Amino acid sequence: MYYPDNNATIKLTGSPSLLMNNLSSSKADSLCYVRLDEVYLAKLSGECVKLPISKSKIYQASFIDLNGKCVLAVLSNLGVQVWSMYGDSMMFYFPLNSLLGFEGEEEKFVRGITAMRDCFGIGCSTGNILIFGCKDGGNFPLVHNLESEKAAITCLTSSSSLLVAANDLGKLFGYAINDAFEQTLSFPGYGSPCTTLCMRESLLLAGYASGHIRAFRTDILELAFEITAHTRAVTGLSLNYLNWGERGVERGSELASCSADQMLHVWALPDFRTNASCRASLLYTGLLENKMCTGVAFLSGERICVASYDEEEIMIFKKIK
């Protein structure tokens, strides 16, 4: 059971934009979000700092872990920038026009990012997925340019062995994380875009513009369960990284979902290694009155933070033992 911790609400300098996945947390409990053409870093202490970036149309800002080092990635119509976790120095910049050029009338952009063991991937509006190596410190060479259907990539996620991408058609594509990055699986669309992804081991969780959450088993290539979770688009999913696989702790995990329907839900996920039920159960529902949620993230200490459009605060929910 969770409850809103009004004493821990984080005040922001500017309100988050109405984007999908517009909240990300680091291992140090720092937060980042997009406001129009700006990116802000927020701390639980209340400090809020604007990243010194060039003006662009930003689609996502996210913390990722590269070889054990937390960094901040900014994805826009200009390309991808990788900054230090504190936003005080830019480590890498890849201009999108160096690969895709300026041809065509449709705007080109990058959206969706995930880190893997020796590389990270970003999605493109053209349907391409770019893989950058990160073995050599601050040098991030482009090592793969994967092609999928000609539909904009919306989000990416990965496990230790699999990279998964989703697109505006709602389709999901999986690639083996190896030297070749060959495609190994795909799941069809369900009539609406896939808006958010997360993954743990062989369980792939996808949120859709229809408000549904679908769980796929990537080991046996089937839909495990479906939840009619929200009445509007799912704008964020976050897995609870606490207690996963620790000695003496059940391997079940918690999933938080949010939406522009003003609702925060927390779900208990099943353990597919046992013969127990393969359905998710609802642990908590919270109404964020008059707040269009744009992103959700778990923090340490079994807390959940939620960002909302046009609201200059981030709400914190704490678990009751």
Automatic annotation (TrEMBL):
**Which lineage?**
Eukaryota, Sar, Stramenopiles, Ochrophyta, Chrysophyceae
Q: Which domain of life is it from?
A: Eukaryota
Domain WD repeat-containing protein 54 beta-propeller, by residue range, is 53-317
A Pfam family annotated for this UniProt entry: WDR54
Q: What is this protein called?
A: WD repeat-containing protein 54 beta-propeller domain-containing protein
UniProt xrefs under InterPro entries? WD40/YVTN_repeat-like_dom_sf (IPR015943), WD40_repeat_dom_sf (IPR036322), WDR54_beta_prop (IPR049546)
Q: Which Gene3D superfamilies match?
A: YVTN repeat-like/Quinoprotein amine dehydrogenase (2.130.10.10)
